[in-house]
Amino acid sequence: MNRLQRHRLLAVAIAASLAGIAPQITLRASSTDHPLVSAVEAVGMTVSDMDRSVAFFSDVLSFHKTADREVSGEAYDRLNGVFASRLRIVRLRLGGEELELTEYLTPRGRPVPVDSRSNDRWFQHVAIIVSDMDAAYVRLRQHGVRHSSPEPQRLPDWNPNAGGIKAFYFQDPDGHPLEILQFPAGKGDPKWQRADGRLFLGIDHTAIVVGDTATSLAFYRDLLGLRVAGESVNYGPEQERLNAVFGARLRISALRAAAGPGIEFLEYLVPRDGRTAQGIKANDVAHWETTLVAPAVDRVFEGLLASRWLMSPSVVSIPDPTRLDKRVLAVDPDGHAVKVVER
Questions:
Q1: Which residues contact 226 (CB under 8 A, 6 or more apart)?
Q2: How does DSSP classify residue 145?
Q3: Which helix (H) or strand (E) holds 255?
Q4: Taking CA atoms, which of 35, 168, 188, 328 is between 20 and 30 Å from 2?
């Protein structure tokens, strides 16, 4: 079976899963053996006021700016699916990880829905690791951040994969959900135990709400080649208060590429009333995108085309200041945007 045939079979499997049908297809060779994607480079979000957002992430969370530029032209219109656009793009770094903020100077998009909940399908956040949860929470309170959780939660010890982790959900000025997270000794990447006097250390992962874990694994693991690094089922009063979702019971799956932050699936087993992402465009402030690195974007485009998850109509060449980047923008089965860049 050649690669294109395999991707077409995968497209049938994903479509059948979305329709609630058990597909009679076995994908015998996992693309994790020869992954299309080599790294998670950055996590991005659309913002309404770049100067305000840069000040928030810099002053409150200790990110520092690494790039700031304005761009426009047909290549960006075709990549993002927004016509006659002009964008300001800023890269921010914390530890070894990066955020990419994009403000659409024109055309302006819609704000984040005011009634967004943590189990809605458009939910995505980044988990920022801290060395001291109590001190980090005080810092956030001093800057008047908007709470999502009522206060930091310590996950219970009966859950072997999550016990002892401290976490807190809050929002940036646009209403994007964010998380601070403290790992106890023996959990998480060992680098998170080396604080070196810093309070905010870096980004461990981005979390996305998914409707069905198996369908999302078909996209991220079987098609793109990320590996499953851990799984758990979390529930109880601490989890409910962390997510601010009454009765929350989540299946959590952590995926990793060879480098960069992880991608974490949050499937709400209960409640199942989270809303689907409908019509979110790249200039809407609810838009997030995860930037993945691939050695050959054309190969990724071939797989995405067969699987019907493209936003860009073709591979787009972007005139970067130092090189010509090839990029493509896709959506996963739940509508989360994934940008693939050739490196």
A1: 32, 35, 37, 220, 255, 256, 257, 263
A2: P
A3: strand 249-256
A4: 328
Helix (H, G, I), strand (E, B) or coil at 207: strand
Q: What distances in angstroms separate CA 1 from CA 26, 60, 120, 298, one per listed residue?
A: 12, 52, 38, 19
- What pLDDT score was predicted for residue 321? 64
Helix (H, G, I), strand (E, B) or coil at 190: helix
- The confidence band for 3, taking pLDDT boundaries of 50, 70 and 90, is very low
- Whole-number Å distance between alpha carbons of 201 and 182: 10
- In terms of residues, how long is the chain? 343
pLDDT of residue 332: 95
Q: What is the pTM of this model?
A: 0.90
Cis peptide preceding 271, ω within 30 of 0: yes
Residue with token string 């709470």? 147
* Confidence (pLDDT) at 339: 96
Q: At what angle do helices 3-18 and 297-307 cross, to 10 degrees?
A: 40
Token duo for residue 298: 């054309």
